[in-house]
Amino acid sequence: MTAPLYAVVLAGGVGSRFWPLSTPERPKQLLPLITEVSMLSETVERLVPLVGRERVLLLTSERLREAILRALPSLTADQLLLEPRPAGTAAALTWAAAQVVARGGADARMVCVHADWAIKDPQRFRETLGRAAGIAAARDALATVGIVPTRPDPGFGYIQPGASHADGSRAVARFVEKPDRERAAEMVRDGFLWNSGIFAWRAQTLLDEVRAVTPELADALGAIALGAAAFFAAVKTSVSIDVGVLERSKRVVVLAGEFGWDDVGTWSALQRVRALDAAGNAMHGRVHVRESGGNVVHAEGSAVVLYGVHDLVVVVRDGVTLVTTVDRAADLKPLVEGLPTDLRELR
Fold first, then answer.
1. pLDDT above 60 for 1
2. What is the reported pLDDT for 308?
3. I need a surface site. Which of 7, 260, 264, 301 has the fewest CB within 10 A?
4. Residues of the chain with CATH 3.90.550.10
5. Cα distance between residue 193 and residue 149, in whole Å
6. How many CB atoms are closer than 10 A to CB 302?
7. Alpha carbon of 40 to those of 13, 31, 46, 72, 198: distances in Å?
């Protein structure tokens, strides 16, 4: 019989670049930013046909436990893998891998995704993840899905594919951190892929590779059997899965993916993933526009009227209004960090 396949969704972030809508108590993944339902709900429903609802696991924090269970009543509490503290994605996915082995056995496979993506072709997305999981298991490899770029975006990391394999995967020549725009254009021309953060592997393979190449976590592996609190307490150095494992491992393969993937990281990204009016405005709530185009507007509890303006981001929530430009919307973190506490930590 085919080894069971689990889907692990990273759903613990806040998303400060979506302030004032996204807050520690109401993080980005629980917001209806793309459609009228939350991005986390969309993510789960997208995965259910691939793995079954009972094999969707959410990596998140204790702080978000109740909010997620209220938002997704079809999930049970034991499907939430709660991190006692942030310790980097390598530790989080190592903990998740241990849980997958405990639930599904040593041959159990897992695919890893994030909760804040837009996917235009869910069926092709699932087919690609299933294929990646199959290749990873057959090769005893760590597989990542690199997105075929649609533009030279300096906001993403990149993967340079290497030698081709008979199963359609390729070796990874190197990972590249976020480049400037000129270098991004060069890499797109040279066939680099976006580093999406989509992974697939046998859960035990990840644990074995962490032990072999990730000294930041290797000493903590012995504490996994004692529970989450003991394991995360034993992790002394935070490291990402990319830096701590994938960039060091000789067992990584990459598959190219084309299914309309987009990382919804800023307000301006909504222009790429939401339905637009004839003037290119992305709108949610009670919004009226006239002689205005290229705007992103999100209104909760109040109406917004735009007249004769272009390329603005306008967000209204609970008596707080944010107005900036589409270009500056990616730079909200310094703004939010400098706000008074009562504004920065809206509930």
1. no
2. 97
3. 301
4. 5-263
5. 6
6. 12
7. 12, 8, 10, 8, 16
Q: Which amino acid is at 55?
A: R
32-83 pLDDT, tens digit each = 888 888 999 999 999 999 999 999 999 999 889 998 999 999 999 999 999 9
Structure tokens at 330: 């990616």
- Distance between CA atoms of 25 and 206, rounded to whole angstroms? 32
Residue with tokens 């807050």: 23
The one-letter amino acid at 217: L
Strands 80-83 and 170-176: unpaired
- The pTM of this model reads 0.91
Task: Give just the sign of the alpha carbon dihedral 148, 201, 241, 9.
Answer: positive
> 5-263 maps to which CATH number?
3.90.550.10
- Diameter of the chain by CA atoms? 63
Tell me the per-residue pLDDT of 294-310, one tens digit each, with 9 for 90 and over. 999 999 888 999 999 99
Q: How far is CA 134 from CA 5, 108, 141, 148, 303, in A?
A: 10, 11, 10, 20, 50
d(CA 237, CA 226): 19
Q: Which two tokens stand for residue 206?
A: 């990840």
